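Teaching soon. Got one?

===
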Amino acid sequence: RSQQLARALAQKGHFCIYVNPHLGLEYPVPYLLSSSPRVCSLGQNLFELHIHLPREHELDQRLLLRSEAGRIVRSIDEVLGDAGIRQAVSLTNLPVWLDVVEQLRELHGFPIVYDCHDLLAGFGGISREVVDSEDRLMGACDWVAFSSSYLMETMLERNPSLRAKAALIRNAVNPADFQFSESDRGVGPKRVVGYLGALDHWFDTDAMLEAAREHPSLDFVLVGTVEDPRIFRLKECPNVRYTGEVPHTELCKHLATWAVATIPFLRSPLTLAANPIKI
């Protein structure tokens, strides 16, 4: 969602800087050998900023240290100065970035927008420290966007004062990315039932296993990264195939060959709060 928002805003004529969230994990050498931030162009008006922190950081496990937040702010400041940017909006999608965007607001007056697109507490892998800090971001931000009605009402029930600065902005796609012709469909020996997305604890493995067993004449194709080992139970069925993660540009090729697309989610607060971009 964050990458697509940045791309769409850039196409509208806005100058966008996307801060790579890995904060150095993608650097090929240790911090001591390559500590400088890097900027690369992703297209017209769209740039990606890579910042190398001294210690590896995973945004879903802990909050940024004061020294880390300071280094990120200085790197952003340097890019803003080089680009001659004096007015901007800080758009963040995780409470981990709060100290950074608050410092940018204090320094430059940049308003803060929190893009709340998932129920953080529904993810088993996100630390309690990060989840608990979300209320602080909700209170500090100037505006908050929610990706689904359920998520929005859940948060507003917990904090009614948010309503004055809340907006509903559901997920979307660029239709041009998913156009294909009849020749793209291909002709296979079996009709294909497909799934596209993360394969994690919210995926209904039992339902998919039953469907594959009941319909041996169909092929079941799962496109995405397996995050929960229970999903490998589907290997029991010879008509289930995993593709792994594929580039966004190749999604259309897979969809073109499907007879049926599925979203086999278990019913939980996390999935109720989701606005599946697959739709």
In short: The mean pLDDT is 92. The chain has nine helices and eleven strands. The first helix runs from residue 2 to 11. Residues 204 and 266 are 5 Å apart (CA to CA).
